[in-house]
Fold these 4 entries.
Entry 1:
Amino acid sequence: MSPWLVLSIAGLLEVAWALGLKYSDGFSRPMPTALTLLGAVASFVLLSRAMRDLPVGTAYAVWTGIGALGTAILAVVLFAEPVNAMRVAGVALIVAGIAALKLA
């Protein structure tokens, strides 16, 4: 499997466990807590596998970028977080950074 695909899946799992933190309610709800921890472990394992073939700085930056981008978008959708020009600009910069690292 392509290391970029593995890294993308790891990034999506980062989104899942980041949102899971909200649903776990401070780790007080057992099922969301278990799913959050499982997602985090899977995300880290896949990130480490992607780093076998990708530069560590690039892999980590793309992984966190996917996580930040996905979490920011889903927070608006799921939790009605506000959307304003500054937030949209920040998300656009994350996308630009991920694209630049992928091309580098």
Entry 2:
Amino acid sequence: MALKRLLQLVFTWWNGATAGTLLTTSRSGQFVGEDEFGNRYYRKPGKDRTIGVERRWVIYKGEADGSAVPPGWKGWLNQTVQVPPSEEKYQPREWQKRHLPNLTGTSGAHRPQGSILRAGERPAATGDYQAWTP
């Protein structure tokens, strides 16, 4: 089992952090906080010479999925806000929906009317469509 985990660290990026990310995190990463999904957020204080701003990153709990980052943390990662959600009392607005991960490929995925994966009848054509014929 240890060999499998070692190979995943070296050769895959979708199963969590790679060996390079873990090395960078241990050497120069400053822990900032953790979200409700168990994702951990880090930064390297000071401006990075290559990007001109502070470098920030996330180590996902489990499979790497960008949609698993809540809005407050997304704003911090993208340099939209400077104060991370762990250092402020973030209260979602009443119009904001609860965060959901990307449901594509699951039973909870959006299936519009007319989809072959949705139950029911497909709506009739409205007559504004003309099939192309060569």
Entry 3:
Amino acid sequence: MTKGDTADMLLENKVAVVYGAGGPIGRAIAEGFAAQGARVYLAGRTRTHLEPVAEAIRAAGGTADTAHVDAQDEHDVDAFVDNVLKEAGDLHISANVIGYEDVHQPLLEISLDDFLQPIVNASRTQFLTTRAAARHMVTTGDGVIITFGGSGNAMAGLGGFKVALDAVEGLRRQWACELGPRGIRLVTLRTGGIPESLPDSLPDDERAQITSTIDGATLLNRSATLADVGNVAAFAASDLARSITGTEINMTCGAVLE
């Protein structure tokens, strides 16, 4: 991440919060925001995962703060946003990319609790973080809420994960209808899979197979990168995308045709 010239920055003087910023997707989005001039607040349950992200942003000339936040906890989320407003004086962008603790098993085999877990987690965290940001944004008539994942074709063996993604999209559409008249936009980033974000613990042969499957499903014979995610997130949050709301931005490299 390299911070650009002030005159060229899409998010100069903007304040952004990123939940799940310690993971690869969250880091990419946070760095994308910071590279375009935003002051970024990194939220997550493990500070040791957040600090390297903050240090990288600062080393590149950006501004970043970290906070221990459980994005499933109503008090934690509300207190975090209140503190951001107290320190920064405003909040323009909220992005939530936390994991949903999904268990991948066929529906005939999965337990009820494991099936429901990602659906409940996804709905709860996206509702809480959006509401906390929107309560301030409606007073200024300006703001952008970004989610990640999107809906799409069902696949066998995913347990409740696909249903969770659909739930988030339904919630996003509902928020878009209610918040649009107040000047707030809601956008989902959809990639179809990012090989760079695969766990380091994954065996090389399994990593290569997954990468080949993801890339092979695209029209461009390549998939989105983490840098792509950061760049598109910054665009989506900027005034250049002021006409985009209530929808997905398709970054699947043609794997999903609209």
Entry 4:
Amino acid sequence: MIRKNPNGDLPDIHPDAFVDPTAIICGKVIVSRHVFIGPYAVIRADETDDQGNLHPILIGEGTNIQDGVVMHSKDGGPITIGKHSSIAHRAIVHGPCEVGDSVFVGFNSVLFNCTIGDGCAIRHNAVIDGMTLPANFYIPSTSRIGPDTDLSLIPRVSQDITAFSESVSDTNQQLVQGYKRIQNEL
């Protein structure tokens, strides 16, 4: 469902993107080309700051937002998702938040008030809260990363992890093409 927010902002969805009919895209959301938005995802840009300002939620080219992902921002803060990133099933991205290019965010992970550098891989059920994670860091499943985290103890992304992240992105690009081809069939 594509709908306006209370300010009257309507999502801007590139015609080469695929949005599942069960997803809810509300308000000031910009979806780039070749983006996949899966079933039951909710992307909502509708909350303003005290002055009535609202930053958009931007989703970069070739990114996939999988089933049940929730994206929203406190007080109209910005959310930017880079190119060719994967936000996996039931993850939460709550702004303000910036996710770089070629990032993998695993199942049920939570990003809040953070910046994630290019090429990072965040595994399942991890929480990143209130910090900047530089490029190419690997966050193991169930980790809690915040302002007090010693980044010297965090591993870097290996070639195997990069290959996995790229395969997820490639698979979802194929889904965009397949679903676009059949989207008007019953």
